[in-house]
Amino acid sequence: MIETKRVKIADYFEIGGGAFTLIGGPCSIENEDMALEVAETTKAVCVKQDINYVFKGSFDKANRSNLNAGRAVGMEKGLAILEKVRNMLNIPVTTDVHESYQCAEVGTVVDILQIPAYLCRQTDLLRAAARTGKAVSVKKGQFMAPQNMDNVIEKIVSTGNDKCILMERGSSFGYNKLVVDMTGLPIMRGFGYPVFIDATHSVQEPGGKGVFTKGDRSAAALVMYAALAVGVDGVFAEIHPDPDNAASDVGSQLKLSEIEPIFKKAIQFNNIAWESNV
Question: What's the pLDDT band for 210 if we cut at 50, 70, 90?
């Protein structure tokens, strides 16, 4: 296994070095009660499986396919909910940022700032996120080759912040289809920073329903297990109590009541890869 830098997440834990980390939560923060339900239940599963857990929830979905689609609760309310989750459950939290001006305020609340795949080359956004001093996770663009993500890392570390995490979320394969090239995972880990597999976005079909994105959540666990067998530092997964009626990513989010066996099996793949030094 390629050795990478370990990224310290506040006073909670380090990402990297063989420990399994899950970044998970609903695509959109729809309300406080749902966010707390997902965080509390997922944390309990992770504690049982000895998995480090970071709660994820988006306060704004600025990249929806449809102009009239819902965009979550907004930054002010969303950050308040994320802060409550962090304080009540004593877990780190993350959310995505779409504009450079958002980073400073978001950085006062979250432990990891997430850069969406469509924005992974936006220099000002990357540097603004890094200047908060918090860890920065970057989704590899669907249009990007894994070997080109070194330029993204350079933009982040140019600020003096080397707490960088890369995420694989599939590559465009023709229209409305994504595929995951598993050989890209060790390529990205070769840059010396932790790499995650985004298991749920990788099974999307962007724009597959015209004004909405399709997805196949039944394939998310398969993508997750394959990536863990190759060797990654963690999993990103969107999780919702009732994904069929979620505000966004209806087809790809994992159902909260079904995650325990998925991650029980996932930790086995993680352990095999690291123990055998694949």
Answer: very low
* Whole-number average pLDDT of the chain: 91
- Is 14-275 in CATH node 3.20.20.70? yes
Cα-based distances in Å from 213 to 41, 69, 156, 248, 268: 27, 11, 30, 9, 31
pTM: 0.93
